[in-house]
C-alpha cells in the first residue's frame, strides 16, 4: 500500500510539474516580472531557477530593477568597521553584477553615492557606469554622485538607454559625437553645461521626447530642433544660484515648465507650445524705492507674448505680483487663446486689479483655477497699498464678458476673495460650476454660510452650481 501511495504522489507531482511546463514563456515571465520592483525582489526571481528545469533560465528574460546605494552615514563609526562594511558591500555588489549581465533586459539600474567621501568610490562608480553602458542591456540608468565625477567618454555611445538621469557635480564634456539614439527621456542635474555640449547631446538623441535640466550653469542659448522632443523642464528651484540667463528656441516643444530662480528667460519660436507653466522668479535687486526692475518687466512682457497662443497656462505668485505692477503702469496683456488658466496667488485684494486686467485678455477661457499661495508682496507694496488697490478694483472699469468660461475652481477659499468671486460671477455668462476646494474640512455650518453668500451674489449664468470639495 505504501508503494502504491508513493507512486500516486509521484504521478501527481509530475502532473503538477507538467502543468507549469505547459504554460508559455510569456505568461511565466509576466508572473515573474510582477515581482521585480527592486534589487531584493529581483534576487527572489533568480531563486526561482531552482523550482524546476523549466524555470532554470526564465529569470534571464525578466526585466529586473537594480539599485546600488552608498548612504552618507556609512562614513561614520569606527574606521575599521566602516572599512570592512564598505569592502564587503562593494565585493558583494560587483559579484552580483557579474550574473546580472546575463539578463536580457534590466528595466532600471540606479547608482546612489551620497557619501561625503565620494572620491574613494570613483573607480567603483566607473565600473558601474561601464556595466550600465557596455555590459548590460539597461533601459533606464540613474546616477547620483554627490562629488565631482567626470562622465566617461565611453558612456556617450549607447543605444539601449531609453532614460538617463544623472547628477554629477561636474562638467558634462563629450569629446566626440554623442550616440544615444534610443534615448526618449534625459535628465541632467547639478552640472556644468555649455551651449556646445547641449548641441552635441541633442544632436545625438534623435528620438528624445523629454528633456529635464535641473540647476545647471553656463548654458545661455538652448536650441532644440528635435522634432520628437515635446516636453522641456527647466528647474532651478532648489539652489541659491540665480544667474540663469537663458534663451530658448524650440519650435516643436508642446509642454514647457520653467521653475525656480533666474535672471532672465526668453522664448523664441515656440509655435507648437500647448501647455506652459511659468512658476519662476527673477532675482532682482532694486536700489531706489520708485525704480521698477525694467529688465524683468521687459522680459516678462515678452514671455506673455510668447505664450499667448497656448491652450493651458499656469502662473506662479511672482509672475502675478509683476502683473499687478505692470497693470499699475497701464500695461495691458496681449490677447490670448488659452482655454485653461491657473493662477497661484495670495488671494489678497492687493492682486485683484492685476488679475482682472489679465483675465480681460483671456476671451477664450473655459476653466479658471485660482490656487491660494503664501507669498510676500513686499515688491508690489512699494508702488501701492491694499486700500488703494481695493479702491481701484471697485472703481476701475474691468467690464468684459467671459463668453466661454464654464468652470471656476478656487483653492484655499477665504472671505477676502469674495470681491473677486462677485466679479467672476457677474461676467461669466455661461458658467456651469463654481468649485470651492478647501484644504481642511470645516463644519457643515461654515460651508452652508459660504454657499448662501455665493448663491446670494448676482450671477450672469442662472445654471451655475456651487460645489464644495476638499483638496
UniProtKB/TrEMBL annotation:
Protein name in the entry: FBD domain-containing protein
Domain FBD: 399-469
Organism phylogeny: Eukaryota, Viridiplantae, Streptophyta, Embryophyta, Tracheophyta
Species whose genome carries this gene: Solanum stoloniferum
Pfam families in the record: F-box, LRR_At1g61320_AtMIF1
Transmembrane segments: none
Amino acid at each position: 500500500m505504501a508503494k502504491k501511495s508513493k507512486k500516486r504522489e509521484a504521478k501527481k507531482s509530475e502532473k503538477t510539474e507538467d502543468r507549469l511546463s505547459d504554460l508559455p514563456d510569456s505568461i511565466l515571465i509576466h508572473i515573474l516580472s510582477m515581482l521585480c520592483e527592486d534589487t531584493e525582489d529581483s534576487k527572489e526571481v533568480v531563486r526561482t531557477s531552482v523550482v524546476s528545469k523549466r524555470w532554470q533560465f526564465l529569470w534571464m528574460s525578466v526585466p529586473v530593477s537594480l539599485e546600488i546605494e552608498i548612504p552618507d552615514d556609512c562614513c561614520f563609526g569606527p574606521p575599521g568597521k566602516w572599512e570592512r562594511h564598505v569592502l564587503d558591500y562593494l565585493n558583494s555588489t560587483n559579484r552580483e553584477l557579474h550574473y546580472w549581465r546575463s539578463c536580457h533586459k534590466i528595466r532600471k539600474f540606479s547608482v546612489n553615492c551620497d557619501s561625503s567621501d565620494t572620491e574613494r568610490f570613483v573607480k567603483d562608480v566607473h565600473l558601474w557606469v561601464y556595466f550600465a553602458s557596455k555590459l548590460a542591456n539597461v533601459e533606464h540608468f540613474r546616477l547620483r554622485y554627490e562629488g565631482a565625477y567626470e562622465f566617461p567618454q565611453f558612456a556617450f555611445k549607447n543605444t539601449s538607454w531609453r532614460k538617463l538621469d544623472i547628477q554629477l557635480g561636474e562638467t558634462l564634456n563629450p569629446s566626440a559625437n554623442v550616440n544615444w539614439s534610443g534615448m526618449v527621456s534625459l535628465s541632467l542635474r547639478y552640472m556644468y553645461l555649455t551651449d556646445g555640449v547641449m548641441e552635441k547631446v541633442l544632436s545625438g538623441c534623435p528620438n528624445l521626447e523629454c528633456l529635464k535640466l535641473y540647476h545647471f550653469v553656463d548654458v545661455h542659448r538652448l536650441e532644440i530642433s528635435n522634432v520628437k522632443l515635446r516636453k522641456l523642464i527647466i528647474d532651478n528651484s532648489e539652489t541659491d544660484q540665480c544667474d540663469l540667463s537663458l534663451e530658448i528656441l524650440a519650435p516643436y516643444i508642446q509642454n514647457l515648465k520653467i521653475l525656480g530662480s533666474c535672471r532672465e528667460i526668453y522664448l523664441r519660436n515656440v509655435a507648437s507650445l500647448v501647455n506652459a507653466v511659468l512658476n519662476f522668479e527673477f532675482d532682482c535687486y532694486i536700489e531706489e524705492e520708485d525704480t521698477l526692475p525694467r529688465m524683468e518687466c521687459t522680459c516678462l512682457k515678452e514671455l506673455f507674448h510668447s505664450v499667448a497662443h497656448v491652450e493651458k497656462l499656469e502662473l506662479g505668485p511672482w509672475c502675478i505680483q509683476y502683473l499687478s505692477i505692470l497693470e499699475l503702469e497701464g500695461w495691458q496683456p496681449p490677447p490670448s487663446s488659452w482655454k485653461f488658466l491657473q493662477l497661484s496667488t495670495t488671494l489678497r485684494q492687493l492682486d485683484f486689479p492685476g488679475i482682472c486686467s489679465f483675465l480681460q485678455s483671456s476671451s477664450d477661457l473655459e476653466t479658471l483655477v485660482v490656487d491660494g499661495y503664501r507669498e510676500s508682496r513686499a515688491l508690489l507694496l512699494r508702488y501701492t497699498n491694499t486700500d488703494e488697490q481695493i479702491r481701484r478694483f471697485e472703481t476701475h472699469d474691468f467690464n468684459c464678458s467671459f463668453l466661454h468660461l464654464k468652470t471656476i475652481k478656487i483653492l484655499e477659499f477665504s472671505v477676502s476673495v469674495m470681491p473677486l468671486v462677485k466679479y467672476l460671477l457677474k461676467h461669466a455668462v455661461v458658467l456651469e460650476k463654481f468649485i470651492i476646494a478647501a484644504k481642511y474640512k470645516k463644519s457643515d455650518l461654515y460651508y452652508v454660510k459660504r454657499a448662501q453668500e455665493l448663491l446670494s451674489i448676482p450671477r450672469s449664468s442662472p445654471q451655475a452650481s456651487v460645489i464644495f470639495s476638499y483638496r
